[in-house]
Amino acid sequence: MSNSLSSWIFALLLSTAFSAATAQTAPAAPAYGPELQGFAYPYELKHYAFESQGRQLQMGYMDVAASGAGTGNGRTVVLMHGKNFCGATWEQTIAALSSAGYRVVAPDQIGFCTSSKPEHYQYSFQQLASNTHALLEQLGIRQAIIVGHSTGGMLATRYALLYPQQVTQLVMVNPIGLEDWKALGVPYRTVDQWYQRELKLSADSLRKYEQTTYYVGRWKPEYERWVTMLAGLNQGPGHALVAWNSALIYDMIFTQPVVYEFKDLSMPALLLIGDADTTAIGSDAASAAVRAKIGQYKLLGKQVARLIPQATLIEFSGLGHAPQMEQPAEFHKALLEWLAKHY
Fold first, then answer.
1. Domain carrying residue 93
2. What pTM was computed for the model?
């Protein structure tokens, strides 16, 4: 963890500088370290060390072998998490894929979860894709099925466009970026504005946002673990550094749309869409008129399926942003059947 010491020092300095502006009630326990130290992952957590943009960084990842009866099928699935998610939130999907004979690699991207939070980093989906590609090369993986959820869907798209010969199938689970929010009238936030917003993140605000936007007003007790994970990361000793990286990542998401390039995807692609989802970056800052026309996954899934040359659309009626967590049995049945059929 070569970057940990400087990260902790930078976090302390930033926390001191912004203490007056961010004073609030004491955070609820537990609080986790800046690389999510203290939070238990469902499978062995490994680390890939590499240099990027002149900095020594590390990516946390899980590499889970096939566990089903007999030998594995020789295929690898790479799972790309969303903005308010981590590799750990793929827990049930990892188990389902592994038991079906797949090797599963689930990395945490730089800036997220168990991976480095650089003091300065030029975030782009190309950079994150390159980082992930380097990890897979080190693991000896030449071809893979790429699965992306939420923001991970934008990254999975970019990865598939950059490395088309190495992606056998592309799966997007309620990906964001199915529309260009800026072009549709969502106002731009500066990185500093995102940073001030992220400094105020709490378990309560996160839970309220997810319940309203992700889960259509519903809530299950098992979701609380993931709220605690993110709130504990944000409110721990890396508070300011975590918030700063989050702000940089939000700027990347908002300013680097992939919707215009769906037409260029060359591999079989599956869209798994909870059609009651209303996620749209920056919608809280948009006018009522703009909010009314963005984040409509009931329409977006169908629109994007028409743009992708070899697309299959499977919709989950009434489900929200994370169908793999809301209805895992139904979701994994659909995923595994499509993977078996489109190979």
1. 4-22+30-341
2. 0.91
